[in-house]
Amino acid sequence: MKLTVVGCSGSFPSAESACSSYLVEADGYRLLLDMGNGALGELQRHCGLYDLDAIVLSHLHADHCIDMCAYFVARYYRHEGGRCEAIPVYGPKGTEQRLTTAYADTPSDTSMSEVFDFRDLAPRSTFRLGPLTVTADQVRHPVETYGFRVEHDGKALVYSGDTGPCDALCGLAENADLFLCEASFTDGKEDIPELHLNGRQAGECAEEARVGRLVLTHIPPWTDPRHNLRDARAAFGGPVEMARPGAVYEL
């Protein structure tokens, strides 16, 4: 299983990175976790525009899903070979309506479903996507939001989505080989319940879950990532690093 960081900026794109998007590959199968602002352009550095097999959206904030509107254009109006077949898109309830509204002028209210096979996520659910086993659970955020555990050939990757501290996240991450965890806040600076984690909290969850490696992501451009990295390392005894665009991890 291979993880490629397509974009990792939190809340809005930085000069160096698109917003949240992560490509997972195994046995020729390609799964994309989230498609935030700027992700579609960056994705094409790592795979063909029509080579994705499935998409999973953690939640419906723009920095995690808005480039799905641009991807709809690419799939619906493809110039060569005709319109693309629908691929599975897992997301919270109302994903199709949210994206249709964001696009604002689709040919019809059901046009997106012609190229995206929308499927609702549910807490504590597990499903197969090609060779991958995906477990979703609801985490703490102001809108319906999911974290994911992706497993293949005895290895496990966990992605937090956006979340405040919660038992569900640590449960998903238990004994994971790689924990891709948001750390948007700075310890001692922001303290908004059930919104985001800081570096210390991400490290504490990684330590509790006994993960193999912690990769911090979703750092907003106005946040100094060095503080979050320092705080995470103080709480977690294993290797910790910052996500960066184009980084590749082999599991």
Number of strands: 14
Beta-strand content bin: 25-35%
Strand order of the largest sheet: 6-5-4-3-2-1-14
Biggest β-sheet description: 7 strands, mixed
Query: What is the alpha-carbon Rg in Å?
Result: 17 Å
Estimate percent helicity: 10-25%
Q: Return the structural class.
A: alpha/beta
Please state the average pLDDT score: 97
SSE order, one letter for each helix or strand: EEEHEHHEHEEEEEHEHEHEE
Regions with pLDDT < 50 over 5+ consecutive residues? none
Describe the structure in your own words.
With 251 residues, the protein is of the alpha/beta class. Helices cover 23% and strands 27% of the residues. It has seven helices and 14 strands. It has helices at 39-43, 62-65, 67-76, 95-103, 167-173, 199-209, 225-235, and strands spanning 2-7, 21-26, 29-33, 54-56, 87-91, 116-120, 125-129, 132-138, 146-152, 155-159, 178-182, 214-217, 240-242, 248-250. Strands 6-5-4-3-2-1-14 form a seven-stranded mixed beta sheet. The chain has a seven-stranded mixed beta sheet with strand order 7-8-9-10-11-12-13, with helices on one face. Strand 7 (125-129) and strand 8 (132-138) form a beta hairpin. Helix 5 (167-173) crosses helix 6 (199-209) and helix 6 (199-209) runs parallel beside helix 7 (225-235). It is globular. The chain starts with a strand and ends with a strand.
